[in-house]
Give the backbone structure.
Amino acid sequence: MTLSSIPAQAVSRSAGAGLELRSDATQLRSDFPVLAREVHGRRLVYLDNAATSLKPQSVIDAVTEYYSEGSANVHRGVHLLSQEATTAYDAAREKARGFLGAAQASEVIFAHGTTSAINLVARSWGDAHVGAGDEILVTVMEHHSNFVPWQMLAQRVGATLRVVPLDPTGAVDLGAYVRLLTARTRLVAVSHASNVLGTVAPVSEIVRLAHAKGARVLVDGAQSAPHLPIDVRQLGCDWFVCSGHKMLGPTGVGLLYGPLEVLDEMPPYEGGGGMIGQVSLEGTSYATAPSRFEAGTPPIASVLGLGAAIDYWNGLDRPTVFEQEANLMAYAEERLTTVPGLRIAGHAAQRVSVIAFTLGDIHPHDIGTVLDTEGVAIRAGHHCAQPLMRFLGLQSTARASFSFYNTRDDVDALVMGLARVRRMFA
Ligand code: PLP
């Protein structure tokens, strides 16, 4: 019997110390209060998880508790409230270390999100280590957040940005990657998973090949962190970045991982309180990582909320919930292909649960607007991936993206909604 043939309710693994790991989607749904609300008089069918995930009550409680019971600043106070906040803040970093599989908590920096983490690396490491004549490699499926900061860096320092195409299935074209990777390549920046096609990039292989040429690799894990087991040491990357709000946490916080030897190569990015060793009129010495990259008061409530989100992940039987998600994705593809005129973009062998599609020549915004009246929330547009859209020969698409709390009923509601869209526009 394979895991997928066992009913979810029957699967219960132990986290050790008597803690039962959870995997029953129906039970898990009740942890997310927003799923109880109605939209336009209909049950909410939330299929916009790639934009941001829903938040379980425990995350909402962690944020509220910080503000209601101890809204003190971290690292600077001798009073009890500040000490409690500092302990909780440091504990969240340790939780993030565990989530990412990093060796040490000091290798994990709290950034404001994926975008700010990438900009930090581009400004700090990039300005110090990339120069005229050097090359930066990205893939054509990058989100603008993993494209524009490198384009800006290239323009600042006189480097060249090179772009790896996809093969006809939507997978990263490894042959082209090998051809584009040269002794001039200083950095490779790649999405672990595409926010449009769902394509999972062969990151370990990309890293191995880049390191053989002396290039560093940044992995954008915004879409992989909520859908794949993450082990930064196994990936071997130089940086891994992700956003709290896409992995059950609050907005305003994200993770930047780098091995200490890589972080040590990075000059400070922003100056201010908390990132210094000594300050005098003559000059300033800087703290080591992670403090060197966390100038100013950090987003404490969001960090504590992210810690609670990681606790939530740790309470899930992740292999089972990810497998259920893969089964749901297969069901969604099967059902969607029955809709006349619907075309799914991208069929790479390895994908996370994101489906971008077009429906005849109906504008994706019309699709999204009609579905909204049915209570079905999807996204429509270029998904901050205009180079990819151009590569695919599309202006925009509709996109349904799933999480472990979605069910077959949600897929059925999407398919019924699309039938209504067709009646109205086709
Ligand atoms: N990278 C990818 C692959 C994304 O999907 C997103 C957001 O959708 C980002 C980066 C940017 O994330 P944030 O807006 O949280 O910084």
